[in-house]
Automatic annotation (TrEMBL):
UniProt superkingdom: Eukaryota
Stretches of the chain forming a coiled coil according to its record: 23-78
Keywords: Coiled coil
Organism: Petrolisthes manimaculis
Region spans: Disordered: 87-107
Taxonomic lineage from the root: Eukaryota, Metazoa, Ecdysozoa, Arthropoda, Crustacea
UniProt protein name: Uncharacterized protein
Length: 107
């Protein structure tokens, strides 16, 4: 029983591309939040209320960064699995009729 050619591979490639784009977006977001965290840590403030607000912001930023890094790790793992699936499907696709046509010189 054979599946329609290219359909599953195309879906896998599309999923991999989406996952890759999500990884890039998360990477940018983490970088931005880390810069914001560094900026908030380096800014000086004298009032007790603003110190408390700054500490709350710092805590929120750290928690957000940790969540995003966890999401990034999960997406990276998913992307790796999808990429391996695409490679495996492209390797098995080339071993059938196409391989025979290539070796006989007929396309």
């Amino acid at each position: 029983m054979t599946q329609p050619r290219g359909r599953g591979g195309k879906k896998s490639r599309e999923r991999s591309k989406v996952t890759s784009l999500l990884l890039e977006a998360l990477t940018r977001k983490v970088s931005t939040l880390q810069e914001e965290l560094e900026t908030s840590a380096s800014s000086q403030s004298s009032s007790q209320g603003s110190l408390k607000a700054k500490e709350n912001l710092r805590t929120q930023l750290i928690l957000t960064i940790e969540k995003l890094q966890t999401q990034w790790e999960q997406l990276e793992q998913e992307y790796t699995q999808q990429a391996l699936g695409v490679l495996r499907s492209s390797n098995t696709r080339g071993s059938g009729k196409n391989h025979a046509a290539l070796t006989s010189g007929k396309g």
